[in-house]
């Protein structure tokens, strides 16, 4: 899995239209082959920060998204950020459930 993680700082008077635009893009992304999840939210600590996160099943799917009009639209929204946007591609090699915590806490072998 790979996460595309984008954080924007948007003035409060412009956050509603940006969030709505991101929601529209999220809906389109969810329909794409390889897209696992999409989240759009405002941070609690700094309400003027908006986070957009997509999770993709493979690097190939992510590359297709980056080459698409979808990413061009995201790039246009990045330009509205009042500070440089934080854009990360998080490559996740392994995912574990609660069994990992149990193992660490010596509950199981």
Structural overview:
This protein has 109 residues and is an alpha+beta fold. It is globular. The protein has a 4-stranded antiparallel beta sheet with strand order 2-3-1-4. Helix 1 (12-30) runs antiparallel to helix 3 (69-78). The chain has helices at 12-30, 59-66, 69-78, 98-104; strands at residues 2-9, 35-42, 49-56, 86-91.
Brief write-up:
This protein is α+β, with helices and mostly antiparallel strands and 109 residues long. It has helices at 12-30, 59-66, 69-78, 98-104; strands at residues 2-9, 35-42, 49-56, 86-91. The chain has one domain (2-104): Alpha-Beta Plaits (2-Layer Sandwich).
Question: What's the total helix number?
Answer: 4
| Helix vs. strand class | alpha+beta
Mean pLDDT: 90
| SSE series | EHEEHHEH
CATH top level?
A: Alpha Beta
Number of domains: 1
Kindly report the CATH topology: Alpha-Beta Plaits
**Strand element count:** 4
What's the N-to-C terminus distance?
Answer: 27 Å
Poorly predicted ranges: none
CATH architecture: 2-Layer Sandwich
Shape: globular
Largest pleated sheet: 4 strands, antiparallel
Strand content: 25-35%
Strand order of the largest sheet: 2-3-1-4
Q: Percent helix among the residues?
A: 40-55%
Radius of gyration, in Å, reads 16 Å
